[in-house]
Amino acid sequence: MTRIGQTNEEQLVSRLKKLLQNVRDIKKAQTVGGSSLILQRTETENTWDVNATVLGSSADATWRVTWSPDIDSPTYSQLEYKYEVSNSNGNVIAYDDPNDIDSDTQKSYIVGLIPNPNLTDETVKLKFAIRSTSTGSLSWTRLT
Hints:
single chain; alpha+beta; 2 domains; four-stranded antiparallel β-sheet
């Protein structure tokens, strides 16, 4: 026995417990990593943000969705959307706006209706949302 009343094994267990507690204290204070990100969801109160008829003669229909965060520093953002198309052959896709100039104050996405091959009119309903590390506002405009 090297400590009063403790065997070598008890000292080892005590020391390991102390080291484990130190590691927990260090990990608890870390502010990086996926588990430390708090994401905000921003969306309008509208049931559908877009409710439009796309003529069957149209080549396509696209909208630019712009996210403007409340803060002037880089933020993470991801577009989420849901849709309904009256024709079962219609699909909707979304991608980063290739004309978007990288800035800390906004991020744009393109949401488009893939035209159906039947050339019939379609009603498309779109609902947009943004998941981001900041609060902010959404706007959209029809491009085609």
